[in-house]
Amino acid sequence: MESTNKKTQSASLKPYVYDLTLEGWQEWAQSNGEAAFRGGQIFDWLYVKRVSSFDEMTNLSKSLRDKLKEQFDFVTLTEVAKYESKDGTVKFLFELSDKNAIETVIMKHNYGNSVCVTTQVGCRIGCTFCASTLTGLKRNLAPGEIIAQIVKAQQLLDAKNERVSSIVIMGIGEPFENYDAMMTFLKVMIHPKGLNIGQRHITVSTSGIVPNIYRFADESTQINLAISIHAPNDKLRSKLMPVNRRFPFDELIEACRYYVAKTGRRITFEYALMGGVNDQPEHAEELAQVLKQFPMAHVNLIPVNFVSERDYVRTPRDDIFTFQRILERSKVNATIRREQGSDIAAACGQLRAKHMESSAR
User: Which residues form the active site (predicted)?
Assistant: First the structure.
């Protein structure tokens, strides 16, 4: 049976039903005296029929359902809050079984529904402009707790006869610091007998955990990689992102070179623009010099979200366009992220921070 990271589960003493891949369920079935195809039936109940209890798995014997009840828990995601934006964005604040809170966001695009999932309770990376890091890292999520966010989102969309069409792993936390759970999540998401999300419709974002960029390159998937770069040089990046002191800028760029050479895929570089900090023409020129070595690179320019506990301000609109033009003049493709859900605090970590603040009163 596949191992589960029990250190991540502070309230449940059992693994979660979503913790296993199809192969894991087949192995579990055989180790419990059942035919391997029973594992496939369980997988189908979870991800095609999307049931919420073992009793609904009606083509399984009562004895098998009893074994499932004894050995596994369903993930508890209690809806604490749900906000709907005028642009169609839906943001959930979920409470876990140990009373920690996480966020999940459904974003509506002209090409379908994208879901942004969380991989950790809090974050230890310490980016100085991000709300997710304000209270540090509480714990990693189990694979099933990540998967349950997608199942919840799909259950909501089922009522509208819609489906999750893409996934971004860009919620609270650093996915590459919960790497094994993230990979289990991905294997379940892309499986043709499960939710069957196309690999090229999934993007995972990292702040630059260099060893796991190499590891991810060697996975040989078609899943997209995004790097939160946010500065064009080592000194400024260390100021904005303490992770750069662990994995310096040059090491990050070298890992990106390896990824591109190994996979042949492009990298998206996320760049949050902060007024007067990293948004000047000289920053754009320097960034262009660094990134033009990646012919397929794409830069996603992000006007920084206001966080009351931080001092950063947004870059003026005209300056954003100037920054973009400088990059494109050097043949570095750049787009400006369309803002979604600003009226419901949809930026990563904002809703959880407000919830924690009110809970502490």
Answer: 103, 348
